[in-house]
Amino acid sequence: MIENNPRAERARLAEANSGERPWRAWGPYLSERAWGTVREDYSEWGTAWDYFPHDHARSRAYRWNEDGMAGICDELQTFCFALGLWNGKDPIIKERMFGMGGDRGNHGEDVKEYWWYLDSTPTHSWMRWRYHYPQNEFPYSELDVENGRRGRTEPEYELVDTGVFDSDRYWMVEVDYAKASPTDMCIRIVAENRGPDPATLHVLPTLWFRNTWSWGLPGHEYVPVIRGKDRSLVAEHQSLGRLVLIGDGTPQSLCCDNETNAERLWGKPGRSQYSKDGINDHVVNGADTVNPAVVGTKGALHYLLAAAPGERVEIRLRLTLTDPEGTPAPAAPLDLAGGFDRVMTDRRADADAYFADVVGAGTPPEEAEIVRQAAAGLMWGKQFFHFDVRRWLAGDPASEPPPPGRRNGRNSAWWHMNCRDIISMPDPWEYPWYASWDLAFHCVTIARFDPEFAKEQLLLLLREWYMHPNGQIPAYEWAFGDVNPPVHAWAALRVFELDGGTDYDFLERVMHKLLLNFTWWVNRKDLRGNNLFEGGFLGLDNVGPFDRSAALPVAGVLEQSDGTAWMAMYALNLLDMSLQLAIHDPVYQDIAVKFFEHFAYIAGAAYYHDLWHDEDAFFYDVLRLDGGETVPLKVRSVVGLLPLAATTLVSSATLERLPELAKRIHWFLTKRPEYGDVVGSKRARGGEELRLLSMVGPDQLVRILERMLSPEEFLSDYGLRTLSRSHADHPFTVHLAGTDFTVGYEPGESTSGLFGGNSNWRGPIWFPVNFLLIEALRRFGSFFDADLQVEYPVGSGERHSLGDVADDLSRRLIAIFRSDADGRRPVFGDQELFQRDPAWHDLLPFYEYFHGDSGAGLGASHQTGWTALVVDLILQLRGGRTTSRNSDS
What's one GO BP annotation on this UniProt entry (predicted)? Predict the structure, then answer.
């Protein structure tokens, strides 16, 4: 029997991992947005936002996956459950979050709603979600028009700016989920009237089936059914069984079909008289658009709530699979009284005990809450992602054929890809699709809670139905062939370590596939064979003076400091991986030798070919023109700091166990003394000798840190900026092909349209690169210890060890979310409602990036996602516990 203690949730994880009980079978796998995605785009020009806009979403059946608010589904998204709300004034039921498409926001796509993921255990045995829903009419048109009017130099027009929350006229809506068993979910919806007057609210818990039957696919003709009965919905599916949703009180059951309303959208007959928007039109307009027989493929329980000011009204629901695979129904599966209360109380107590154990007793309560909300965002960010690219390119038998250009257009080289998996997404609304380098960072934090899931995620992108046959790892659905930084090996090593460092099968499986990927990089991105790498985009959207993923404005090659640093780091990660494996299988010594030497060649080339600028003490990208001219692009950006991350330590104890490797290193240093600066430094530490392998030698390290740790350049009160503040007064400009290309310091949103203008690497603070640089400082600190102290901050006259510097940088990043001495959280910027109102102040948004001077959150607002790395920073400082498979032994 699982009891209410830290081991209860760990026991559920163990049962799920062993296959004993499928605790992960149901989860928050329903996306916040499926409209405006590449998967749903069948347009001629690839204009996804225009082809399937928000206005179509309530009426148009999705081809690939569904969306909804506070939603859950099974692992194959056979069924979906989500929340619908209507305040009696809006033109539509609130079934999904509203925001600007990429072409409408003045800084690209941007959601215009306020909701929070407050809690989730790794098995989703307990989850909590909150939303603030205006009582007055939602200003859809005002937000669209004003954001469309504003230019890139103006701030975004947010929902709070419209005045719709004045006088607290909103509903605070919370949804709690608690599992009685893997397929028995207790659901509590609580709506609180925050306004000064009595108000009414329509609440529509909605159950539906993903449409798999309308596309004319052989073997997919079966149509499941949902029937309304009394205060319940009974859903039957041939592969799922019978699913029952029952509610307390006296709701009205409503049913329609998850089919497109072709009449509304295109003026032609559709497949069903009672289409997807039937419940919406019936509730909002009183139309006869729900099936009077109360049957269909989409159903809702319609509640009408009335509440006095400050009153809270509760709805209880239970969603249960009553006869999976013919097994008997559980005892009292639809209890909404005492049994319901016990499940809710027990699962919350389990979650409290679990997270208390993870963060440790010494963690301050505010930081413990940051960890818990960030973890919730990570868990709610697990989404069902379905995309058969071959089918998408060819079109469906029952649909109009796609435009002719599709076969040679977006993702046409990735026809082998066939995805139908639960994947960790960067942001469930703004980026509801996987991004390979984002996912690597997610997995490092996920491994602290669910290492098996983290390992599965890393392996998934290396499987043959994801990885390209040529060895490239897919980037993201907008362009699978784009090039993201190669951080998969780094993440795999961190996950391996966080899981206890014993799963060598996992490490070996990852390494075999990454050998293919490393070879792809060398063959495709080192065009001149000189160990310098181009790479292109590399995740840092607008960091350079021109678009690095497009053709150069002049004939030549751009040799990228960050591309070369990423590959040096990649070589070291594979070296570290091969060292781990060689302890158990000596054959990996040969591979270790290969990556030791390859790292030396890459690191040495950065100096030989002048990526290092000695006078400026910085690494720069270099443009080599076909005419022979060399143009260093003297932008002091994170591009020039990333070489610090290409660092590792090899101990004498390791070399003693691997004599062939030790012999080869000795030979290499004897015969190739010119590489001594990058592989030759040694120090005695703790009774053994450490060898430093680093793209940055000791002399260069000190000089780079003089810039990186200066408040006048990279050091902010809230971490490290991505561009030196010196470029505020001294922008960099290069004149090429009759055009000036300029980079200046922009600490907030981007004023450039590169990559849609919805992110900015020209000054803001980004967690992933900060995290890598903090890690690098810790490794340097382990090597130099007290032998090296640096002025920190530069200009202060104070000197600190590199380990102390890393700790302080961590604290600066954590401070973005903490209340300062005045009770203000930097993440909220100058938004007084969030700073001063207790109903908002403790609800944390985890933004994509942060203002380089103020720490205010910018970009995507639910980027947990890699901003969840704040969890690792807190636990590293506080010594919090890791969830590993060995933690219960």
Answer: oligosaccharide metabolic process
Residue 71 lies in a domain: yes
Do 280 and 137 have their domain in common? Answer: yes
Mean pLDDT of 544-552: 77
Give residue 166's domain range.
Answer: 6-324+337-359
**346 shares its domain with 460:** no
Q: Which residue has the tokens 């559920």?
A: 12
Greater model confidence, 459 or 3: 459
Give the pLDDT confidence of 335-354 residue by residue, as tens digits: 999 999 999 999 999 999 99
Instruction: With CA atoms as reference, report the closest residue to 515 among 583, 581, 564.
Output: 581
Which phi and psi angles does 745 have, rounded to 5°?
Answer: -75, 120
Q: Which two tokens stand for residue 362?
A: 């010494």
Q: Is residue 218 part of a domain?
A: yes
Do residues 436 and 318 both lie within one domain? Answer: no
Please indicate, yes or no, if residue 349 is contained in any of the structural domains.
Answer: yes
Tell me how many domains the chain contains.
2
DSSP 880: P
| Alpha helices by DSSP H, 360-487 | 365-380, 389-394, 436-446, 451-460
pLDDT at site 544: 81
Other CB atoms within a 10 A radius of the CB of residue 503 amount to: 17
**Which residues make Cβ contacts (< 8 Å) with residue 629, sequence separation at least 6?**
none
* 602 neighbors 565 (Cβ within 8 angstroms): no
Q: Are residues 162 and 242 in the same domain?
A: yes
Q: Is 415 contained in some domain?
A: no
Please tell me the number of Cα atoms within 13 Å of 610 on its side-chain side.
Answer: 11
Residue 453, CA distances (Å) to 422, 429, 477, 490, 804 in order:
10, 22, 22, 17, 33
| Contact call for residues 693 and 592 (beta carbons, < 8 A) | no
Percent of the chain with pLDDT over 90: 82
Cα–Cα distance measured from residue 144 to residue 146, given in angstroms and rounded to the nearest whole number: 6
pLDDT digits 0-9 by tens, 259-303: 999 999 999 999 999 999 999 999 999 999 999 999 999 999 999
Q: How far is CA 839 from the centre of its chain?
A: 26
- Helix (H) / strand (E) element for 241: namely strand 241-247
346 and 441 inside one domain: no
Tell me the C-alpha distance between 521 and 346, whole Å.
51
Looking at residue 91, which CATH number applies to its domain? 2.70.98
Q: Using an 8 Å Cβ cutoff, are 749 and 763 in contact?
A: no
- List, in sequence order, every residue forming a beta bridge with 295; answer none if it has no partner: 227
What does the alpha-carbon distance between residue 574 and residue 36 come to, in Å, rounded to a whole number? 38
Residues 452 and 480 in one domain: yes
Distances (CA, A) of 502 to 449, 492, 498, 505, 583: 17, 13, 10, 9, 12
Q: What is the mean pLDDT of residues 609-620?
A: 93
Same-domain status, 162 and 229: yes
Q: Which two tokens stand for residue 294?
A: 């109360």
Q: Which residues pair with 651 in a beta bridge?
A: 690
Structure token digits, residue 607: 């100096």
Give the span between the Cα atoms of 426 and 36, in whole angstroms. Answer: 16
Name residue 631's beta-bridge partners.
623
Instruction: Kindly state whether residues 143 and 289 are assigned to the same domain.
Output: yes
pLDDT of residue 758: 72
Q: Which of 596, 611, 630 is nearest to 565 (CA)?
A: 611
